[in-house]
Structure formats: C-alpha cells, structure tokens
Amino acid sequence: MPELWDLYTRNRVVTGQTIRRGEDLPEDRFHLVVHVWIKNPKGEFLVTRRAPDRPTFPNQYECIGGSVLAGEDSLQGALRESFEEAGIRLRPEEGRVVRTVLRERIGGARFNDILDVWLFETDAQPDLALAPTHEATEAKWRTPAQIEELFSKGLFVYTLDYFFSVVANA
Fold first, then answer.
1. How far apart are CA 167 and CA 118, in angstroms?
2. Could you report the per-residue pLDDT of 98-146, keeping only the tens digit for each?
3. Are 33 and 115 in contact (CB under 8 A)?
4. Counting beta carbons within 10 angstroms of the beta carbon of residue 82, is it exposed (0 to 12), middle (13 to 18) or buried (19 or more)?
5. Is 101 helix (H, G, I), strand (E, B) or coil?
6. 101, 115 in Cβ contact below 8 A?
7. I need a labelling partner for 136 at 20 to 30 A (CA). Which of 34, 35, 56, 98 fits?
8. What is the pLDDT of residues 34-81, one digit of tens each?
9. CA 65, 109, 14, 21 torsion-angle sign
10. CA angle 119–125–130, rounded 5-degree value
11. How much is the pTM?
12. Measuring CA to CA, how many Å separate 123 from each of 42, 70, 89, 94?
C-alpha cells in the first residue's frame, strides 16, 4: 500500500489533499516531516545507523525521522517513526518540539516540507528486533562529543548539523 502524505500550505494549514510518497509535490504545497532526538537520563542521545540499502545516506548515522502520514499529526508521526526505526516506545508527555522550520530547498533540491524537531527525554530503551522497517542496523546512546566526532569524520547525515545549536543544550 502506498504511503500517503497530507498536503499543507506554507502556513501549516492542512489542505485536505494528499499525495503519494515519490510523487512531485506541487510548488506551493508542503508535507510534514519529523526528526526525533531522544535523550536518556545520562545526557546521551540515541543515534541510529542507516541500513546499507537505504537510497540516501546509506550507513550514515542520524536521529530517528521521517514523513508524517496522512491523518497523523506531528506527535503521532514522531511516536510511530521511533517505534518503526528503533523499536522504542515513547510516551507523548516525554516529548516537546524544539524547532519548526519550513524547508523549500536543501542543497539546491526542492524539499517542500515543514520540519518539526522533537526532543524526548526518557529512560526507554531501543530494541531493533522490534523495529518493523529494518531501516537502521544500529541504535546506540552517544554523548554530544561522540556525535561531534561522527560529524567531523563525515559519518553523520550532514543535514542534522543543527543538533549542536538546537538540540544538544535544549
């Protein structure tokens, strides 16, 4: 079954229209995307490693994230993606949005998304054996210094460089 996304105006108003993943978004429409950063009581962040067969950024490290499905809100998308990618069940009250940004273009490519960056503080643990999508091959807790080292070696998805200014000290 194809993945469907709700379409939004640039002011985040749901239009009532949907689009299938992979179809070109209309120039004046956007879809909702979430990035989910998870922090444990030790101050470490959950980092996953993308599977080698992923079409973009194979074997790179990242936070959990993805497109919000039609009918979901941002929180529901964040909770679903966390389970699908890392087998971790988060509680809604543990999370908060720390950044929202409208992204029309990244690196010259048209994105047309509205990105909500979530931060969850929890003692819940990932379990990749429960993750139904197998998008990640590894899920580990990392300190901000360890994440910075992965970035410096070119092993972290470069579009997540906002981590240091937005998430690490939130």
1. 9
2. 999 999 988 787 889 999 999 999 999 999 999 999 999 999 999 999 9
3. yes
4. buried
5. strand
6. yes
7. 98
8. 999 999 999 999 999 999 999 889 999 999 999 999 999 999 999 999
9. negative
10. 110
11. 0.95
12. 9, 30, 10, 10
d(CA 20, CA 74): 18
Coil, strand or helix at 130: coil
Q: Cα–chain-centroid distance for residue 52?
A: 18
Query: Which CATH number describes the domain made up of 4-165?
Result: 3.90.79.10
> Nearest-CA neighbor of 93 among 75, 72, 80?
75
Give the helix, strand, coil percentages of the chain, each rounded to 5.
Answer: 20, 40, 40
Report phi then psi at 145, rounded to 5: -65, -40
Q: What single-letter amino acid sits at 76?
A: Q
Contact 35, 117 (CB under 8 A): yes
Buried b (16+ CB within 10 A) or exposed e, 96-126: eeeeeeeeeeeeeeebbbbbbbbbbebebeb
Q: Enumerate the domain spans of the chain.
A: 4-165
Report the half-sphere exposure of 57 (CA within 13 A, side-chain side). 16
